[in-house]
Amino acid sequence: PAGSSSIADFFIINELNLRGNKTLAVELIDPSGQKVFSKTFDVKILGGEEFGQLLVEGMQLPAMNEPGYYTVDAAIKTKDKVEATGSDRIFVVDYLTSSGLKGKGAVIDTSGVINAFLKESRGITLPDYDPSSTDLDFIIIGRHETGRSGRRRANPELMDMVVNGTTLIVLDQADSWAQRMDNQSLRYINSLRGGSSGRFFVGESRFLNGLPQAQSMNWEYQVFYSRRPSALNIDFLGTELIVGSASQGRKEIGSALTRIPFGTGQIFLSTLGILSELSSDKPQSVVAKKLFLNLLELSE
């Protein structure tokens, strides 16, 4: 998260059999390419059979306030001669800075996670959804009961509101919603389970503002791999794929996050583990929090 710091350990993998007293020079480079921190350490490299060696442990980096990639560069030197180098990257996300949430909304969430997060991040609390409401700009669906299974239609009151301009964000049981929306606002085929080989990928989208784009979802998106990847097998015609899913041994490309225009409104269906990360204190959960807020604030 922007404004936080990190702790770094420095090791040598001694492929060159370096030995003796050396200098370890460390620099932190910000997203604009500017050096914002540097420090040197006197280290003694053992060499010989000591192939891997911890040189410096628990070095506190300064707070990183700007979003984007920071790079930790390290070099082992004898006087001014560089004998070995290494680097690692840190991705910083800012989800607290915002122009503000616009419009009137409601939430369907028996867990209370969504409102707790919105209170912490935006200072607001949304009312529970009232079926008699007719003027909502957005509705967020978290933990809820979908009722009996089957191919009955999705909630008609909600769908009528979407037709007339409401944004519906579904963070839980997206497969049930897709099944019930089949032949109404999309064509649903089935659900896909990626197993251990499943991978997510993203293109370019305004809903990924402040997050890595146009790539396979790598370490920056690690929170979404804490459970087996799942996706929806739907007809993409007329939809906007934001996060896709692919897996070895499966020819179908799945949808892990899709925007579906419907009437003058829109529906977001997500199989990603966004909801569970909204209440998490893990630093890496910031990516899920940023993505969720993007759906809310950039969907006009």
Q: What key attributes describe this structure?
A:
300 residues; mainly beta; 4-stranded antiparallel β-sheet; 14% helix; elongated
Strand content: 35-45%
Helix and strand content put the structural class at: mainly beta
Helix content: 10-25%
Basic shape: elongated
Flag low-confidence runs.
none
The count of β-strands is 16
- Sheet with most strands: strand arrangement: 7-8-9-16-15-14-11-12
Q: Note the gap between the termini.
A: 26 Å
Number of continuous helical runs: 5
**Biggest sheet overview:** 8 strands, mixed
Overall description:
The chain has helices at 113-122, 156-163, 174-181, 274-277, 286-297, and strands spanning 7-13, 20-29, 35-45, 52-60, 68-78, 81-92, 105-108, 138-141, 167-170, 188-193, 199-202, 215-216, 230-234, 240-247, 250-262, 265-270. It is mostly beta strands and 300 residues long. The longest helix has 12 residues, at 286-297. It is elongated, with a radius of gyration of 24 Å. The model has no long low-confidence stretch (mean pLDDT 92).
